[in-house]
């Protein structure tokens, strides 16, 4: 019995222990999966409740909405610490860390999206409120650019009147501010741009960078006027300072899909999040496709389409509050269906009747071309192709020292260009092939320190180096069976030899060239408040530039003959050309600005600055002298020197508004311009200097934002650009063949005095404006705002030729764009249309090679429309 009791007691003890263990497991499981509640109230910076805001537990799908009083309650199984994201339309989405559960409600403050008068810029290499910076700057947020359909730089010219961008393809791109920066027309690789183009602090030397699609843009700052004491590369006309969003520790993602007519489809996505402690990563991808808007009747295919793919990856390491390291890599690949020019017209030149375009075409047995450019039809017999890849890698290190930041930016970039073009723009087999294959590598290093030296003094000092290696690889220009008639000056004498069968068939040149360049500089600028509210800002820059050129052009094809007369006729079309040259120069430039800021609503400033664009070299072929040799006097182009005066007024008349006025005058000595030559072999033109140029103007821009309901912006720019002295300008197309009496003898001349003539690419009047009205609403269970928005831009007539011409002028045009839809903190959906009025307009006109009277144009886009869906989570 005793034994039995003992056993039972033992079993009871075991049972109790088992139950205790089981109960403990159940209790711990209950604790592990307890539903903990987080409560809070969401307010604006002014302390008023933010109703209907979205609250999300980061890393989960758990979400809720605040009530009309901004109060919320959300349940989670996660243990602290964790993040909650709070977002609402009109406010910046913010993450708040929950360190522990508490009984009292959290008080969370949302910051409104930047008001127009509170935009922060980094144009002076430190964060400042836009209106406090004594520089003419236009700022476009990444979201605003996307909403306006500005997915590359070309679209920005409709938003900022002082920006001019003209492109017949990615390589032949002219990016100017206030009409200055790059040569207008066909690009010559031997000249440096005068507009600096920076993405995340990295200077991008080739103008083709402007053709790539934006990838996750945060903000675009457009600085007008010389800025060489702030940026690495000299910028005689201004700069684009583009920043992309950085990776975040908190997981984020965004997806966007655009569809439209012409089978337009664009998809974008970006994903960001932590990969390790203090290390975040981001990947952004963009793809764009669109059918062409120009129909080639001979090939029965469309041209001027889009086929772009872009990638950008970033790693962001923040081991401490003082150190930030950003490693970025990007590549953009474009294989569009070409960008052909359409025949825009035929004019009579001053050559003999035998050499007029109509007579030439008739003698060759072709029908006269139909001048109907806006039918968007071409009839060319060489496929158009403009393939390119562009990208690079960069490392940016920011280290806080004292009251400033030491920054190092190291970068390598590449550009590969493989085109084919039909440069006679027609079915005629004349200039049948033109392909300037190029390879470009650049290496850059910038180190600078920016910050506050004392309570009254701040500034930036830095050094910069850029090495470039630009190669032209077997760049080809080739003529066909009809070219003989374009170069023949008469049907008699030695010229009759051009009718020899096959003389010029497949005759061409292959060019291999190399430009090795080095640019180094040291720059500094200070901001000293020497009297209360009165600032003086001196800046200096010393620059050294060196360029080495190796140019080798050889002929091929055509009739193989030993006949001296026939060889002379061929040499008059194309000839071998070789030269080497090396040049260097240095320059000391600077600026001084006075800025008076008596209140936060007024900033008055005046600036005097000098600037410089480096020596240029010609690698597009040189005109020949009377004995047929290359004119080496044109191989090197003198540097360009700038004197610039500017007066600015930045104001905030009433809450939510800004009105800015800028007046400026720019004088340029030895202005570098592009000259179109009637000779084949230099069909991309060559560089020359105009003795003196002046550009002056006034810019007015204003914006107004009424709470979250209405935003309005408008800008107008008046620009007047002229050659003050250009005594050796090329003849315009219609004056080709002009003769003058020289010592009593009628002598044909190739140049004229264009002094007083207007500069190309500059409209006297440029205006833009836009408005957006929104109202609160709901789609399904999601609160947001319905909106309707539109913008309009106008450019008056401008010259499209280096020398003023009666025919190569682009007529003024107006473009109207609109969009309507719904947007919330997470999702936006809207319809859009660009060029609603289907305005017919040219972006550029240019004479066909040989100057026989034919000229062609780059067409602006027709009406396009579509829809956009954007979702972030």
TrEMBL record:
Topology class, membrane: Multi-pass membrane protein
UniProt entry tagged with the keyword Cytoplasm: no
Domain TonB-dependent receptor-like beta-barrel: 377-832
GO cellular component, one term: cell outer membrane
Keywords: Cell outer membrane, Ion transport, Iron, Iron transport, Membrane, Receptor, Signal, TonB box, Transmembrane, Transmembrane beta strand, Transport
Residue ranges constituting the TonB-dependent receptor plug domain according to the UniProt record: 130-239
Record's signal peptide: 1-34
SUPFAM superfamilies: Carboxypeptidase regulatory domain-like, Porins
PROSITE patterns, per database record: TONB_DEPENDENT_REC_2, TONB_DEPENDENT_REC_3
Subcellular location, record wording: Cell outer membrane
Superkingdom to which the source organism belongs: Bacteria
GO biological process entries: iron ion transport
PANTHER family according to UniProt: FERRICHROME IRON RECEPTOR-RELATED (PTHR32552), TONB-DEPENDENT OUTER MEMBRANE RECEPTOR (PTHR32552:SF81)
Protein family membership: Belongs to the TonB-dependent receptor family.
Protein name as catalogued: TonB-dependent receptor
Organism: Pedobacter ginsengisoli
Lineage: Bacteria, Pseudomonadati, Bacteroidota, Sphingobacteriia, Sphingobacteriales
């Amino acid at each position: 019995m005793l034994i039995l009791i003992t056993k039972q007691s033992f079993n009871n003890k075991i049972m109790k222990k088992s139950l205790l263990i089981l109960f403990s497991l159940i209790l711990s499981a209950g604790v592990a999966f307890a539903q903990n509640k987080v409560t809070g109230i969401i307010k604006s910076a002014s302390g008023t409740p933010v109703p209907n805001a979205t609250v999300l537990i980061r890393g989960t799908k758990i979400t809720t909405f605040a009530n009309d009083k901004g109060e919320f309650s959300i349940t989670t199984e996660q243990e602290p610490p964790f993040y909650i994201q709070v977002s609402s339309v009109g406010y910046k989405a913010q993450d708040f860390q929950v360190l522990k559960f508490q009984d009292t409600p959290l008080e969370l403050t949302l910051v409104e999206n930047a008001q127009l008068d509170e935009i922060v810029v980094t144009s002076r290499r430190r964060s400042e409120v836009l209106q406090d910076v004594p520089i003419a700057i236009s700022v476009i947020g990444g979201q605003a650019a996307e909403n306006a359909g500005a997915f590359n730089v070309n679209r920005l010219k409709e938003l900022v009147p002082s920006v001019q961008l003209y492109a017949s393809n990615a390589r032949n791109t002219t990016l100017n501010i206030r009409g200055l920066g790059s040569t207008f027309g066909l690009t010559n690789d031997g000249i440096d741009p005068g507009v600096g183009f920076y993405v995340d602090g990295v200077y991008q030397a080739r103008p083709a960078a402007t053709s790539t699609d934006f990838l996750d843009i945060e903000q675009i700052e457009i600085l007008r006027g010389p800025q060489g004491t702030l940026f690495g590369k000299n910028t005689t006309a201004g700069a684009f300072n583009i920043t992309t969003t950085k990776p975040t520790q908190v997981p984020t993602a965004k997806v966007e899909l655009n569809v439209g007519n012409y089978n337009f489809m664009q998809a974008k996505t970006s994903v960001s999040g932590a990969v390790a402690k203090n290390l975040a990563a981001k990947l952004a991808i963009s793809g764009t496709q669109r059918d062409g808007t120009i129909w080639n009747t001979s090939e029965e295919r469309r041209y001027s389409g889009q086929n772009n793919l872009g990638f950008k990856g970033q790693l962001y390491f923040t081991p401490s509050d003082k150190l930030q390291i950003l490693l970025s890599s990007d590549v953009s690949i474009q294989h569009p269906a070409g960008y052909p020019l359409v025949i825009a017209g035929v004019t009579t030149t001053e050559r003999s009747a035998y050499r007029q375009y109509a007579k030439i075409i008739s003698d060759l047995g072709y029908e006269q071309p139909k001048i109907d450019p806006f039918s968007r039809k071409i009839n060319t017999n060489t496929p158009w192709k403009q393939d390119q890849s562009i990208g690079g890698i960069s490392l940016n290190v920011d280290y806080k020292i004292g009251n400033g930041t030491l920054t190092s930016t190291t970068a390598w970039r590449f550009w590969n260009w493989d085109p084919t073009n039909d440069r006679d723009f027609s079915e005629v087999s004349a200039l049948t092939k033109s392909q300037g294959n190029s390879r470009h590598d650049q290496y850059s290093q910038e180190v600078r320190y920016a910050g506050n030296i004392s309570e009254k003094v701040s500034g930036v000092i830095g050094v910069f180096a850029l090495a470039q290696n630009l190669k032209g690889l077997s760049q080809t220009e080739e003529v066909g069976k009809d070219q003989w008639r374009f170069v023949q000056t008469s049907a008699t004498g030695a010229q009759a030899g051009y009718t020899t069968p096959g003389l010029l068939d497949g005759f061409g040149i292959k060019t291999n060239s190399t430009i090795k360049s080095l640019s180094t500089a040291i720059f500094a600028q200070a901001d000293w408040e020497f009297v209360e509210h009165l600032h003086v800002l001196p800046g200096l820059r010393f620059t050294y530039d060196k360029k080495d050129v190796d140019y080798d052009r050889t002929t091929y094809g055509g009739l193989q003959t030993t006949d001296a007369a026939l060889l002379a006729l061929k040499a008059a079309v194309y000839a071998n050309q070789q030269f080497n040259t090396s040049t260097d120069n240095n320059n000391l430039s600077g600026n001084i600005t006075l800025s008076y800021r008596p209140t936060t609503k007024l900033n008055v400033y005046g600036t005097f600055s000098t600037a410089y664009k480096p020596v240029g070299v010609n690698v597009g072929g040189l005109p020949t002298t009377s004995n047929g040799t290359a004119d080496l006097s044109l191989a090197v182009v003198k540097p360009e020197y700038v004197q610039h005066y500017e007066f600015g007024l930045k104001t905030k008349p009433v809450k939510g508004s800004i009105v800015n006025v800028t007046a400026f005058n720019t004088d340029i000595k030895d202005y570098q311009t592009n000259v179109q030559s009637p000779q084949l072999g230099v069909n991309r033109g060559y560089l020359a200097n105009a003795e003196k140029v002046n550009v002056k103007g006034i810019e007015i821009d204003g914006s107004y934002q009424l709470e979250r309901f209405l935003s309005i912006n408008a800008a107008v720019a008046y620009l007047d650009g002229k050659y003050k002295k250009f005594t050796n300008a090329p003849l315009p197309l219609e004056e080709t063949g002009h003769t003058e009496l020289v010592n009593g003898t009628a002598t044909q001349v190739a140049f004229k005095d264009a002094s007083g003539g207007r500069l190309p690419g500059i409209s006297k009047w440029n205006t833009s404006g836009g408005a957006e009205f929104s109202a609160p609403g709901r789609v399904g269970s999601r609160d947001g705002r319905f909106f309707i928005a539109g913008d309009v831009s106008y450019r008056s007539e401008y010259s499209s030729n280096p020398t003023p011409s009666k025919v190569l002028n682009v007529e003024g045009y107006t473009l109207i764009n609109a969009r309507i839809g719904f947007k919330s903190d997470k999702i936006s959906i809207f319809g859009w249309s660009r060029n609603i009025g289907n305005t017919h307009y040219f972006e550029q006109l240019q004479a066909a090679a040989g100057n026989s009277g034919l000229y062609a144009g780059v067409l602006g886009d027709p009406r396009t429309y579509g829809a956009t869906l954007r979702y972030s989570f």
